Amino acid sequence: MAQTVLGSALILIAVAIAGISYYAALTPVGVGISAFFQEGAPGAGGGIDSSKAATASRVATAISRAESSTGSQFPLVRSFSAAKDMSLIGVGVRKKAIINVYSVGIYGAKQVVRVVEAKAGEYARCHAIVEKNLKTSRAALLKFNMAVTAEKMADAMSAVEGPSQEIKDTFTAMLVKGIGGKLTKGEEMTFEWKGTNTVVLTARGVSIGEIKDKALFQGLLEIYLGENSVSPSLKKDIAAFTSSK
User: Fold this and answer.
1) Is residue 244 part of a domain?
2) Could you tell me if residue 136 is inside a domain?
3) pLDDT tens-place string over residues 57-82
4) Which of 50, 73, 145, 172 would be a feasible disulfide site paired with 154, CB 3.0-4.6 Å?
5) Which domain range does residue 145 map to?
6) pLDDT tens, residue by residue, 3-52
7) CA quadruple 126, 131, 136, 138: dihedral, nearest 10
């Protein structure tokens, strides 16, 4: 009888040792075996997975900025048709009554960043970006928070001041044709300023045309950065801009 009890005890000890060895083999280096029996164990949707998610979030934050009203993310550096590796200078939102129609980010080449940082205050900084003698590329990246038809977008942009009616008609027709129906939530378009007189348009990452006209060039800059900006929050954000050198 004693031999039977002793034999059973030895079997139980052997099973326990085998179980511990099995879990030890599965456990990543530096993680205790007890981690498998705790909330947050690997593969249980807890601590390690959450840590990875937090790390990914920090990386995303380091390479982009969110517009506060919409949460839309804008990369700190982005290439456009007009120029490569332009820096984000400010973000804002275009509101219609209480509705956030789209968020917008203004980008500039190195020379733009330098002239903006040399100024202080909302007016001085925005005026520096609009400056007629600034011979370098700028861009506005629009991220839509709701569906907007091509006709409504063209109608809104037809309010641009300065260009002739013929140029306005050409510009709005280009928008309608290039957008093709409507821009839906999450889609993007850009207005890009190249040199001192060329406006480049893209929708959904595809170029839809360009127009060379100094008055249109300046008028579009004024829509976003002028006295009657469609996005006051954008101008305020530019006033607080500091480049990440």
Assistant:
1) no
2) yes
3) 334 456 999 999 999 999 999 999 99
4) 172
5) 68-239
6) 443 344 433 434 344 443 433 333 333 333 333 333 333 344 444 344 44
7) 40
